[in-house]
């Protein structure tokens, strides 16, 4: 089963809104957060550091977001920011802008009410792994019913550490609407502690943990009609790539080429702009920067080949707000 939020994510249409990096005194060994996200009071919309409410809206528009996935820390200041962003997004984009929150605490009825009133659609709970199998009769069971009573769709989202039948029991009882299992991954933020716990990377894989797709996990859990197993490959090849494509489509200039990976390709030459005007290059094929000119990459190649320019380079970069360069190829 794929929820509406996951459908939008697969299309690359879900903006990721990170609100603080404190997690209610929990210190899970598998937490993937890196140094710039763990134990910080920062907010990020995708890769954009948020300095104002306008930054959140600008990033959503940059990617034509269909919805927003909210994750991050748990202090009350984070809750206040989360509810404000929810209201902001609903006011700007309307009720069709689907929102879900991933959280590692139960929160209580008042927080469920506040989130619902602010416009949250789904809430996905991530209980501590040491409680898996022993959650019935606890606050983790209670909050599922409370969230539904307050107008939210309650669900679980967990890492694929091991098969745990109790999650299926909550689904069959109607307490939780669905359960998402994310393939267990290593990152720069958790690599050392994961190894200390005996986990290793899959052979020939950049992040997936060995055994995260074992037979028990897949057959016992992912075969359930209300369980969705999200692989590392799918996250990279579909979710992330499609999000980049949406951004690239929105921000590309007339002469930028959008690749299958969602990156932008253009040419760059450190020459006076008068050179292009003298050669009769149409204005839509280049733009003048303070210290260089950016131009259609194929036109740059032709001009160097014809001797109109001595050299230049072809640049490939992400369409994200920071415009990280993927590759530079000299042309001479």
UniProtKB/TrEMBL annotation:
Looking at the record's lineage, which domain of life comes first?
Archaea
Give residue ranges for domain DUF8061: 262-331
InterPro entries given for it?
A: DUF8061, MJ0021-like, rSAM, rSAM_sf
What Pfam family is a match, any one? DUF8061
Name recorded for this polypeptide: Radical SAM protein
Question: Which organism does this record belong to?
Answer: Halorubrum trueperi
């Amino acid at each position: 089963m794929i929820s509406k939020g996951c459908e939008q994510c697969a299309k690359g249409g879900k903006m990721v809104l990170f609100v603080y990096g404190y997690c209610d005194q929990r210190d899970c060994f598998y937490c993937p957060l890196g140094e710039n996200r763990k134990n910080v009071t920062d907010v990020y919309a995708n890769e954009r550091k948020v300095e104002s409410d306008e930054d959140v809206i600008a990033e959503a528009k940059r990617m034509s977001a269909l919805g927003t996935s909210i994750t991050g820390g748990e202090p009350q200041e984070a809750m206040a920011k989360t509810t404000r962003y929810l209201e902001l997004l609903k006011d700007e984009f309307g009720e069709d802008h689907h929102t879900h929150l991933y959280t590692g605490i139960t929160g209580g009825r008042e927080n469920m009410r506040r989130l619902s009133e602010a416009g949250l659609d789904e809430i996905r709970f991530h209980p501590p792994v040491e409680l898996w199998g022993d959650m019935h009769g606890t606050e983790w069971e209670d909050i599922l019913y409370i969230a539904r009573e307050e107008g939210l769709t309650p669900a679980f989202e967990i890492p694929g550490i091991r098969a745990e039948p109790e999650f299926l029991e909550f689904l069959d009882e109607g307490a939780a609407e669905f359960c998402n299992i994310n393939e267990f991954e290593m990152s720069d933020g958790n690599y050392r502690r994961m190894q200390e716990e005996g986990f290793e990377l899959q052979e020939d894989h950049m992040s997936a943990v060995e055994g995260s797709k074992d037979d028990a996990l897949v057959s016992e859990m992912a075969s359930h009609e209300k369980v969705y197993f999200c692989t590392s490959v799918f996250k990279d090849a579909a979710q992330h790539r499609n999000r980049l494509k949406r951004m690239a489509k929105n921000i590309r200039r007339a002469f930028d080429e959008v690749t299958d990976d969602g990156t932008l390709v253009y040419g760059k030459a450190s020459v006076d702009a008068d050179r292009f005007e003298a050669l009769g290059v149409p204005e839509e094929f280049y733009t003048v920067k303070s210290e260089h000119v950016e131009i259609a990459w194929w036109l740059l190649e032709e001009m160097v080949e014809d001797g109109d320019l001595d050299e230049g380079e072809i640049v490939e970069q992400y369409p994200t707000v920071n415009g990280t360069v993927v590759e530079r190829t000299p042309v001479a």
